[in-house]
Amino acid sequence: MTERLSNTANQYIGAAKQTIGQTLGYPDMAADGARQKSEAETAQKVADARVHAERLQHTAENSTNSTIGGAKQTVGQTLGLPNLAAEGAAQKSNAETQQRVDDAKAQVRGAGNELEGKIKQKVGDLTNDHSMKADGATTEAQGTLQRNV
Predict the structure, then answer these.
(1) What's the domain count of the chain?
(2) Whose CA is closest to 51, among 92, 10, 7, 94?
């Protein structure tokens, strides 16, 4: 979350520098602001992709552990091995609980992205920065998708 805040702050600072530079006729300041904003946007896209990949990996691990746990439980019950059945039930339960935790984290990230997107759109309006406004709409939509998955 700290990385997202840092990237967002750098996007806003860059956009402000760009707007001030353009408005006051300082092309170096405008270019520096555009560069800072672009670098922050790229860094955030990389961070978002990493988080998405981690979520997919955790979901696969949780699903695998739930399936294996369920199989152990069934085999243990079928063969009259209560320790194996209990171990399988615990493994399945732990995997399902971890998946619920991961889903809750995604909900929180989604809500944060929706809010961030709305703020970017407002800042884009105020600074007449159409790319920031569009990026805000995209971020808000990503947040909505994260909350609905």
Answers:
(1) 1
(2) 7
